[in-house]
Design a protein that fits this description.
Layout (H helix, E strand, L loop, with lengths): L17 E8 L2 E8 L4 E8 L3 E2 L3 E10 L3 E6 L2 E2 L6 E8 L3 E8 L8 E9 L2 E9 L15 H28 L7 E3 L4 H4 L1 H5 L44 E3 L6 E9 L4 E8 L7 E9 L4 H16 L8 E5 L5 E6 L6 H7 L2 H7 L11 H20 L12 E3 L5 E3 L14 E2 L5 E2 L6 H6 L4 H16 L11 H10 L11 H10 L10 H14 L9
Helix pairs in contact: 7-9, 7-12, 9-11
The structure holds adenosine-5'-diphosphate (ADP).
Adenosine-5'-diphosphate binds next to strand 14, strand 16 and strand 18.
Catalytic activity: L-tyrosyl-[protein] + ATP = O-phospho-L-tyrosyl-[protein] + ADP + H(+)
Family: Belongs to the protein kinase superfamily. Tyr protein kinase family. Insulin receptor subfamily.
Subcellular location: Endosome membrane
């Protein structure tokens, strides 16, 4: 018997809804389901004037099913996308894409009309917007010359412009020293870019002039190279009145290298006159050598972010030293280094290898593992309360101090030593796919719920003494596995209660996952139930 169901009055909003067909007779029942997939032509909902986030960005929202193909025209000429100018999609749902045309350091030659054309097999839509990044040089009115044009007339031409940018940058830096050791790094976009000063008088709104709703969370190189929350100025993280503490270079004495960070070496150092009742303390300093302009901007933004993140399970950030090259960030020293290395060196393999030597390596107990997990969860509860999405939670980004004190210590920067943990998806984008839920892999959607998924993977890492998740699979196989709904197996030493917690973190639907507060309190009670013998690790 062939029958059909007619549906009328549907709209694209019905996409994703499920139709269930159930058949029943006296002998039994059967049912089948169908996911609605309504096809419709593209519409460009918004195409806004450019705004300055980390880079310049022309924001847009486009709908259509199937996903429309996008083309940009600048002054009626098809725009060839490249590293400096390219379309970035920040958020993608079944029907809708939010993104922007990102322009890195545009100049007046990029001013003009931008047309976005969206096409799919059912139709097309287009919208235009005017962009004015920088006023063109005005030779007939010397009084109104932008600074870089004055330099150009002096005969220094292009290199002069570059020099000027650097000089302006240092000019801005000199502001840091005004109030002795502490001063303001403004989060205002005007002060963040010398080019923006040059562009004074143009019509382009800076993101600080727009309402918070207009601030697009830039997802330029997600997530290990940049965390877009560094560039957000509407959230609680980057307050315009952030005071970044400045430390004098002569107060920092380097002792030895601790490791290699994403942007430079990390050293153990002694820092004088940092805390009131101690002449000097041990600190970890992260260096940034020969920073490019955008490297410096990232550095300052990260410093502001770190200044505002303060919690007992987030590594303490003491301040910056920017007197000369390299730029330095000063953190509390965590004696046992990163948690992944720590777990490996207190696992069965390390204990086996140390056998015969006079080393006193001790395998971690279950209660110590719970104690570690509980502290990371506490740090994550705090980050979630600050509406901060970490995006790269993993044991390699946590640090271990004395008495098994664990803190989250890294906020979205990549590392060479762990490069196999990241998956390069083209250009600069590197993703920690083994820690990511399906929606982050498929749509680059990162939320507090996706952090909860990663926390589940961190629990798995802890209970396997630092194994790499899906170590037996290649990156492509991992992507296939996760998107198909497979989850990591229960580690040998993991109690059922903890594996249930992991499964609660790995629910496919983000809203079905455990809440970070619940996870923390469950871990807390499990840890309480099995006391930790901290002195074993000394
Ligand atoms: P980046 O964030 O630039 O990638 P990392 O935080 O990864 O740098 O640091 C590299 C290495 O330096 C870590 O694996 C760790 O061993 C060491 N390290 C970093 N910060 C500290 C710290 N506060 N205390 C002790 N060791 C640290």
């Amino acid at each position: 018997m062939e029958n059909s169901l007619s549906l009328t009055g549907l709209s694209p909003d019905d996409n994703g809804k499920v139709i269930v067909c159930s058949a029943e007779n006296m002998v039994g029942q059967d049912e089948a389901t169908l996911l609605l997939n309504i096809l419709f032509p593209p519409t460009i909902q918004h195409l806004l004037s450019p705004e300055r986030d980390h880079h310049w960005c022309i924001p847009f929202t486009v709908t259509g099913n199937p996903k429309p193909v996008l083309h940009w025209y600048h002054e009626n000429k098809l725009l060839e996308e490249q590293d400096y100018i390219r379309t970035m999609i920040h958020e993608s749902t079944e029907n809708e894409d939010h993104g922007c045309l990102q322009l890195v350091n545009p100049t007046h030659i990029h001013n003009g009309e931008y047309r976005l054309v969206a096409k799919n097999e059912f139709g097309r839509d287009e919208k235009t917007v005017l962009a004015q990044f920088i006023d063109p040089p005005n030779i007939s009115h010397p009084g109104s010359f932008p600074v870089y044009v004055v330099v150009g007339i002096a005969g220094v031409a292009l290199t002069g412009c570059v020099l000027m940018v650097i000089i302006l940058k240092y000019g801005r830096n000199s502001k840091f020293g005004i109030k002795g050791s502490s001063s303001v790094i403004s989060n205002d976009d005007d002060s963040a870019s010398p080019l923006h000063h040059v562009s004074n008088g143009n019509n382009t709104p800076s993101s600080s002039e727009m309402g918070p709703d207009a601030v697009i969370i830039g997802m330029t190189k997600i997530p290990v190279i940049e965390n877009p929350q560094y560039f957000r100025n509407s959230g609680s993280m980057l307050k315009s009145d952030t005071f970044v503490h400045h430390i004098k270079r002569h107060n920092i004495v380097l002792k030895r290298e601790l490791g290699e960070g994403a942007f430079g070496k990390v050293f153990l150092a002694e820092c004088y006159n940092l805390v009131p009742d101690q002449e000097k303390i041990h600190v970890a300093v992260k260096t940034l050598k020969e920073a490019t302009e955008s490297g410096r901007a990232d550095f300052y933004r990260e410093a502001e972010l770190l200044t505002n993140l303060q919690h007992e399970h987030i590594v303490t950030f003491y301040g910056v030293c920017v007197e000369s090259d390299p730029l330095i960030m000063v953190f509390e020293y965590m004696k046992h280094g990163d948690l992944n290395k720590f777990l490996r060196s207190h696992g069965p393999d390390a204990v086996l290898m140390a056998d015969g030597q006079h080393s006193i390596l001790v395998e971690l107990t279950q209660s110590q593992m719970l104690h570690i997990a509980q502290q990371i969860a506490a740090g994550m509860v705090y980050l979630a309360s600050q509406h901060f999405v970490h995006r790269d939670l993993a044991t390699r980004n946590c640090l271990v101090g004395e008495n098994l004190l664990v803190k989250i210590g890294d906020f979205g920067m990549s590392r060479d030593v762990y490069s196999t943990d990241y998956y390069r998806v083209g250009g600069h984008t590197m993703l920690p796919i083994r820690w990511m839920p399906p929606e982050s892999i498929m749509y680059r959607r990162f939320t507090t719920e996706s952090d909860v998924w990663s926390l589940g993977v961190v629990l798995w890492e802890i209970f396997t003494y630092g194994k790499q998740p899906w170590y037996q699979l290649s990156n492509n196989e991992v992507i296939e596995c996760i998107t198909q709904g497979r989850v990591l197996q229960r580690p040998r030493t993991c109690p059922k209660e903890v594996y249930d917690l992991m499964l609660g973190c790995w629910q496919r639907e983000p809203y079905m996952r455990l809440n970070i507060k619940e996870i923390h309190s469950m871990l807390q009670s499990l840890a309480k139930a099995s006391p930790v013998y901290l002195d074993i690790l000394g």
